[in-house]
């Protein structure tokens, strides 16, 4: 049975990649920073299939030689995504760049044939004036980026430079937009924060942030297709839908969940108010760079070369909300309108 290594197994994207690989008959080895707490990996154990979990940290060489031993391909998904902006941008950049090179060095030494790297459209369109449609030929301007897009751009650049010197190693990068979709466990990702807030009515109005969203399940499929498609080697693939505002998210959820008892706020929060609140709200501060900014990218290459077929945004939004409710992070009005509001999600762990 073909064995695939997935890094950062407890992460939002990695967990769905593991589920997709198991569903398609692959044997999977996943890396986590620590196996001391079994609760952190219980949702992965519940997937069944041939799954092995091992300890390896992006900031340490220990464990990586063992992690890549005997695997046929690597999906390098692990990378820090902040819920709040770090004071020192190296807290993001160094683990992203050094961790990527650490995985690539171990993969090359072990004779791994292909690595699929999870990058981001943050490595494609950031630092440029909005308006035109960006493609895989574009790179973000690191001199005009904030910490997160700079970390993704530098990490992907470093990966391509590495494989240029190691032609025996095939590299494919997948560049997703805002990742949404049903979470697998209560330590939800940063991209889920706005949905939890909407469902719990924790905001009186909605900041108008612009994204190109992608469903995490479709993203997992894209990773597998990038691994399986021979001609994908040496290519970048944008995986993101059409531009959408967070106010569009709210309007759709209000339409779909309103009849179930959810009073989703839909009023638009003015930019001046968004900016003011972000001074005190660290989570909103991370999203401030997306305020009133349109995000247009093309996923035509992934559709044409990988045969990638993403689901509709409406389906993804409803499934995201239903997943949050199912985990008890928001009230389930289908059971009882008197049920207490859901718990606040814990920050997603880095793996």
Explain how this protein is built:
The chain has 351 residues and is of the alpha/beta class. It folds into 2 domains: 3-177 and 214-239, 3-Layer(aba) Sandwich (Rossmann fold), CATH 3.40.50; 181-211 and 244-293 and 314-351, no CATH class. 36% of the residues lie in helices and 14% in strands. The protein contains 12 helices and 13 strands. The strands form 4 sheets. A 7-stranded parallel β-sheet has the order 3-2-1-4-5-6-11, with helices on both faces. Strand 2, helix 2 (42-45) and strand 3 form a beta-alpha-beta unit. The chain is globular and about 55 Å long. Mean pLDDT is 90; it is low at 336-351.
Q: What integer is the average pLDDT?
A: 90
CATH class descriptor name of the largest domain: Alpha Beta
Counted up, domains total 2
Query: What is the SS-derived class?
Result: alpha/beta
- Low confidence ranges: 336-351
Q: Rg, please?
A: 20 Å
Features:
351 residues; alpha/beta; Rossmann fold; 2 domains; 7-stranded parallel β-sheet; two-stranded parallel ribbon; disordered C terminus
